[in-house]
Amino acid sequence: MKLPLILLLLSLVSCTSKEDDNCSSSSSCTDNAGVPQARNVLLKIRFLDTSFYDREKDEFRVITAPQFASGNLGERIPVYADFLTKTKNESLGSISISNIQMQSPDAFTVENLNSIPYIAVQAESDVTYIYKYTKLNIDGSEADSATGQFIVGGSVAYLPLVNDMFDDKFFSASSGGSQTNYTHKIQIAAQSANSVKSETYAVTFNSALVIANKDFESEFSEDMQNMTLKTRWNYFYDGSDGTPNPELLLGKMVEKADLSAVSSLDYKDIRVLFKTKPKIEMIYTVFDENSITKDSNAPDANITIVRGYEFYEKSYSLTSDRDFGLIFKINDTSTPLINADKEAVIRNISAGVNWSLTFGYDLNQLPTYPSGKSLLKPLRPICNSITKTSYTPIATSTMRDSVNSLGGFSSVCHPETYQSETVNAASLATFPLEQTDSWYDSFSYMSSKDISNDVHHKRVRIGHLYGIKTIKFKIEGCLKLFTRDASVSPVNPNPWSQKNNESESCSSGPGDEGWMAYSLDREISIFDNVDQYSTTVGLKELINNYNSSVPLNTVDFLFNNDIFFEHIF
Residue 333: which pLDDT band, with cuts at 50, 70 and 90? Predict the structure, then answer.
């Protein structure tokens, strides 16, 4: 009987060198008590050399079996934006031609070369190869984790390093420009079908985002790098609760090598042609906890409080073609989009200056919405919902943090009184309530608690957790880039020269060639830095439980009894 995946990875057992001799036979292996254990296969992880075409360096790269076996690759693995969403089958098909590429690289176009880094081991019959994936922040704390199985193709077991293999957790361009700032640790276990014996290795490496073109790389804005769910309002609003920020930049794509003018002139023009009108998104995912379970559907069935029993969530996308404006810049200069919003031209840029394309949000809304303030109206604490009062996140949090910094206590929504509570340092000793709050700036949390009423009858505060799970900022598409020599003439007579490489993902077939993929994707999450909630009883554990659960979708999701949130969520 196979061990459950999690148990196997938590209690991995390896044969010693002495045991290997015994275990490699088809007879038996003995445990510490001398009890024979059936062992019909050699449980030995044998890494294989892997090869892929590094489009950033424009060359084939080989990661050798000894490098994998050493446990630390000692190099950054490129992550290309255009294969992050590839399926397992597509990945496997692309990887399978790797050896042929190495032998005859000239027989393939660049677009058909395998550019997917992967881990491969020699597959034994009747052996399952499983992994536990852990993504670590730069400080060593855990960011994400996932488990799964290698893909077996013939005598080789593959693990393509793409998002699809890791529950979309492998890549997250959160900060640091093209550097993901994550360390990836993959524990690999081989388990036979007829034995609890297993062997494991751990492989650790870092990664770097490489846009699917060797000419440029992504660079996220400082605001995007620093933003969290808690601090988002300081970026959404322009210094106060009343005015949306007219320029919230997502990031830019920066030229890696000088795409100079066609000749040696000192200035150049740049033309950007988009395949479709660029659309920038802001995708909200909100959630609600169900803490109650029933023994049956009978009216008198026993009801049990189980924190994190179920989670419901719903997502909605705000877009630049419906909800707000798109900011587009070439070399940090705001540039209007022309010709159905699919083209932009900027003239007379110094030829020795690398070009950049910047995308951002103008949160002053389009005329289809009443005001920017209405669209960005924040999720309110439960106290404000009960009293039907407005919530000003910047002013409220500033006041609260000021009182707390002076040794007093201030809560936005106290879980016992369902209203804000503030007491200065001098009066804190006689404050009759717990120094706790139900509002955490992007979600509300109340613990479960037994409460005695005035006649000493017991009742229960069920407790609740709801709020914003993630906000994703995103733009992606296909474009062509052209440069030409500058001219003093009102109409430049010089010809355009296309400068970008082609991305396979942007081509739909003959006649649709020459397009290059671009992508910027930044997500902030309730799971970021979850350790900050460890001082609140039960909160960290509940958030971690949500992170490992499978939420249920619902169409009936209304926050704050607000028409705008009815639309958004």
Answer: very high
Give the Cα separation of 224 and 235 in Å (integer). 9
**410 and 420 in contact (C-beta within 8 Å)?**
yes
d(CA 81, CA 520): 9
Give yes or no: residues 345 and 233 share one domain. yes
Q: Are residues 432 and 337 in the same domain?
A: no
Q: Quote the pTM value.
A: 0.64
Name the strand (E) or helix (H) holding 454. none
Residue-range definition of the domain harbouring residue 258: 216-280+320-373+476-517
Exposure class string for 405-433: b at 16+ Cβ within 10 A, else e: eeebbbbbbbbbeeebbbbeeeeeeeeee
| SS3 category, 236 | helix
CA atoms of 175 and 251, how far apart (whole Å): 10
Query: Counting Cβ atoms within 10 Å, is residue 264 exposed (0-12), middle (13-18) or buried (19+)?
Result: exposed
The answer for residues whose C-beta is within 8 angstroms of residue 564's C-beta and 6 or more apart is: 374, 375, 377
- How far apart are alpha carbons 431 and 412 in whole angstroms? 16
Q: Nearest Cα to 213, choosing from 147, 257, 161?
A: 257
Cα-only R_g, the chain: 28
Number of domains in the chain: 3
Q: Identify whether residues 288 and 337 lie together within a single domain.
A: no
340: Cβ contacts below 8 Å, ≥ 6 apart: 277
Query: What confidence tens digit (pLDDT) does each residue in 8-22 have?
Result: 443 333 332 333 333
Strand 497-498 relative to strand 449-452: parallel, antiparallel, unpaired? Answer: unpaired
Bridge partners (DSSP) of residue 94 are: none
Residues 365/371, Cβ–Cβ less than 8 Å: yes
Cα 515 from chain centroid?
Answer: 26
257 and 130 in a common domain: no
Per residue, the 3-state secondary structure of 306-328, as one string, reads EEEEEEEEEEEEEECCCCCEEEE
Question: Are residues 312 and 554 in contact, defined by beta-carbon separation less than 8 angstroms?
Answer: yes
Asked if 47 contacts 65 with a C-beta cutoff of 8 angstroms, the reply is yes
How do 552-553 and 333-334 pair as beta strands? unpaired
Cα distances (Å, whole numbers) of residue 394 to 238, 240, 390, 397:
11, 7, 12, 5
> Looking at 210, 245, 262, which one is the last position of a domain?
210
If you ran DSSP here, which 8-state letter would residue 87 be given? -
Contact 294, 301 (CB under 8 A): yes
Closest among 471, 473, 467, 459 to 533, alpha carbons compared: 467
Span 422-469, pLDDT tens digits: 999 999 999 999 899 999 999 999 888 776 666 655 666 788 898 899
User: Residues 435, 340: one domain?
Assistant: no
Residue pair 203/183 in contact by the 8 Å Cβ criterion: no
User: Which residues have CB under 8 Å from 73's CB, separation 6+?
Assistant: 63, 67, 203, 204, 205
Residues 339, 272 contacting (CB under 8 angstroms) = no
List, in order, residues 6 or more apart from 175 with CB less than 8 Å away: 181, 220, 224, 225
Q: Are residues 113 and 22 in the same domain?
A: yes
Residues 118 and 181 in one domain: yes
Q: Tokens at residue 49, please?
A: 């050399």
Please, where are the H alpha helices in 263-351?
Answer: none
Q: What share of the chain in percent tops pLDDT 90?
A: 22
